[in-house]
Amino acid sequence: MCDSTAGTQNVTLADIAKMAGVSSVTVSRAINTPHLVKPETLQAVRAVIDRTGYVPNLLAGGLASRKSRLIAAVVPSVSSTMFSETIESLNSELVSAGYQLLLGVSGYDPAREFELVSAVLARRPDGIILTGLSHLDQTTNILRSAQLPIVEIWDLSSAPLDMAVGFSHHKAGQLVAEHLAPLNHERYAQIGAKDERGLQRRAGYIQGLAASGIFDVPIKTVNAPGSFREGREMMAELLDEGGLSLAVFCSSDLIAHGALAEVQARNLSIPQQVAIVGFGDFAFSAYTHPPLTTVRVDRADIGSRAAKCLLSRLNGLQREPAVIDVGFEMVARETA
After folding, report:
1. Does a cis peptide bond (omega within 30 degrees of 0) precede residue 225?
2. CB burial class (10 A; 0-12, 13-18, 19+) of residue 318?
3. What's the pLDDT at 4?
């Protein structure tokens, strides 16, 4: 005998309402704005939906309300710890408000970002979140034509496309220079990935060292986002170039961890002979041996604030400030 609910293509919203003992309006709210529905009612509606396999026609509702309940976000990577906490907090805020996150991965490629933005705009998202401020002209043009709320995250600008939530990577690099320069090492160097934000941190570091009279700064570049292996290989090159009194700024804690491993393999003292500073304050950074000095950024806060900016605009409330600086701080541990 076949189950009477198997033909789910014939189940309507009105049917779900009748089976759950509520109105069609309540079912609609349970689907689109679940936070506005009483928990026991929401549970009853979801139980019927689960039992019948009903799939709501969100497109039809979206055409009527001009809302898709989708927020699109483009990030450089999902494998990097640098962005994972931002994505998770962003998703949590949006889901709580009845929205779904549509995620695209650009691989640090502006051309890929353009392809992703073009594709998601065809799906009519209610808002878009981009990583960084550097975009192709084509990307900027189609976003402005779309007239959607936009939040650029992980960087700051006095003139964002719409809203920005982040911090100054240049100033973060300067802070590292201010921390390392007084250590009076013979050589200062940098190991960094060649993504836009990593390059900004490098520029700030070099400028900060120059302000302290340090101008010869060897640079080792790796592909974004950088890896433990590359950090170790680049540190080996720096050490082979001579001089054991060395201070190095790495563009991520993962790269710094690799650099630290190479120093330890050579039985060099840390930080007396080699000082190392990373960036990001990853979960492992306080537990390396010795613990890693780094720059801490509240990655989850970036995602949470970006979501709140979009939701504030979409709900017709007073908009958040156009630019939100989440700041950063130096976390001094035993490697520098």
Report:
1. yes
2. exposed
3. 37
